[in-house]
Amino acid sequence: MNLPFTPEQFFDLFAQYNLAVWPMQLALYLLALAALFMAVKKNPYSDRTIALILAFFWLWIGLVYHLFYFTRINPAAYLFAGLFIIQGSLFLAAGVWRQKLSFRFQPDLYSWVGAALILYGLLIYPLLGYFLGHRYPHSPTFGLPCPTTIFTFGLLLWTGPKVPKYLLALPLVWTFIGFMAAFQLGVLEDVMLPVAGLAATALIWYRDRTETGLAFPGSHQMQSR
């Protein structure tokens, strides 16, 4: 795939974005941690708030990063912006308005795989990028498409059964778009994108078909949901 920009332009764009929106990166991390806390310590507003946070992440990427920044070097970013805005709107519709999403951490395979993806998106991704030579501000921070997509799949693995499957489609599409481009540009931390997308999608489909949990040894087998 021939890209309409050079690696230098790509990483310079990260620097422009990171310097312009600072300290928004900290706010995005705090929102992610708040979502995790509310999934563990449930309250009557947890599910809608977590869905709202996910919607905000995807709308932020579509409107701010893709539409305002990435379009400067890649005309396809207008399409990408539309995909992220649609996904953010779907989170609003499913989780906030229709209340079809329930988030919780449980000691089963799904939640632990989700936790691993969340840890990768929030912590391992930037650390791996640092050791690969992607130093701030010329690095993809949380709140940009790829680490946020991995985090999203992790959090979707913390949902209750029967999560609306249309919520998986656009993030899964992005895992392959982002991986193909970023791999050519040397962002090797993005190797987890298709792994996260395929693993999370397969596990969620399996869970919702069987409606049983896969407990780890030493944990109680989940009740039929």
Largest sheet: none
Count helical runs: 8
Order of helices and strands: HHHHHHHH
Shape: globular
Give the averaged pLDDT, no decimals. Answer: 92
Structural class call reads mainly alpha
Query: How much helicity do the residues have?
Result: 55-70%
How far apart, in Å, are the first and last alpha carbons?
Answer: 44 Å
Radius of gyration from the CA trace? 17 Å
Low-confidence stretches at least 5 residues in length (pLDDT < 50)?
Answer: 216-225
How would you characterize the overall build of this protein?
With 225 residues, the chain is an all-alpha fold. The protein has one domain. Helix content is 67%, strand content 0%. The termini are far apart.
List the helices and strands and how they pair.
Layout: H1 7-21, H2 24-40, H3 46-69, H4 77-97, H5 109-131, H6 145-156, H7 166-184, H8 192-210
Compact summary:
With 225 residues, the chain is an all-alpha fold.
Attribute tags:
67% helix; 225 residues; mainly alpha; disordered C terminus
